[in-house]
């Protein structure tokens, strides 16, 4: 009888131990699974944080580069009032002078009246913005000769210049076809209109 009880006790004990072992094993599996999931989430979060940090760094770097480029362009295009005064005087002296002993056909010709009405401040800033070299007198003189706006009252200025120079009154001004800003001026001779000089509307320079 005692032997049977002992056997039952052993069997029951074995079953209890088996159940405990299975329970512990499942708990351990759940713990490992949770740990793996946490590690996975942690790795994912770290990766996202790293990518976000990298993206922020790249954006900041791009902004810094853009700011540097903008600052460089602004510095290049800017000129002090004194610089503009200096370049204005030098360009006027250059155009009104011998222009480095250039032959006549290579010179930039301007009427002094027209040259004195040029907006050097705006043109110099535009010149620098378009890649012009600071302080380059000859280059800037060529730039204004090609790009200075035509004055709205250029015809009246030209008529006065012509009268002061030759004592002739202009009776008609006609655009020369296909020659840009070149015009033909007419005066009266012997009761008839006759062509007298050609004039450049931009620079006011005229010649017969």
Would you give an account of this structure?
By secondary structure, the chain is α+β, with helices and mostly antiparallel strands. It folds into three domains: 1-76; 78-147, no CATH class; 154-207, Nuclear Transport Factor 2, Chain: A, CATH 3.10.450. The chain is built from six helices and four strands, in the order H-H-H-H-H-H-E-E-E-E. The chain has a four-stranded antiparallel beta sheet, covered by helices on one side. Strand 1 and strand 2 form a beta hairpin. The longest helix has 76 residues, at 2-77. The chain starts with a helix and ends with a strand. Mean pLDDT is 78; it is low at 1-31 and 68-75.
What coarse outline follows from CA principal-axis ratios? elongated
Uncertain runs: 1-31, 68-75
Tally of alpha and pi helices: 6
Structural class: alpha+beta
């Amino acid at each position: 009888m005692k032997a049977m009880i002992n056997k039952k006790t052993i069997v029951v004990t074995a079953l209890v131990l088996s159940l405990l072992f299975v329970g512990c094993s499942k708990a351990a599996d759940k713990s490992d699974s949770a740990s793996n999931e946490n590690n996975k989430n942690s790795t994912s979060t770290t990766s996202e944080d790293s990518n976000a940090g990298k993206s922020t760094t790249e954006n900041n770097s791009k902004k810094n580069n853009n700011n540097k480029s903008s600052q460089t362009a602004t510095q290049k295009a800017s000129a002090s009032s004194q610089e503009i005064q200096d370049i204005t005087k030098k360009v006027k002296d250059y155009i009104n002078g011998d222009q480095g002993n250039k032959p006549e056909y290579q010179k930039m010709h301007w009427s002094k009246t027209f040259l004195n009405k040029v907006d050097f401040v705006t043109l110099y800033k535009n010149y620098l913005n378009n890649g012009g070299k600071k302080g380059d007198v000859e280059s800037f003189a060529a730039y204004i000769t090609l790009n200075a706006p035509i004055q709205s009252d250029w015809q009246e200025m030209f008529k006065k210049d012509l009268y002061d120079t030759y004592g002739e009154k202009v009776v008609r001004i006609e655009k020369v076809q296909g020659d840009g800003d070149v015009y033909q001026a007419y005066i009266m001779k012997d009761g008839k209109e006759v062509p007298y000089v050609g004039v450049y509307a931009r620079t006011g320079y005229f010649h017969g």
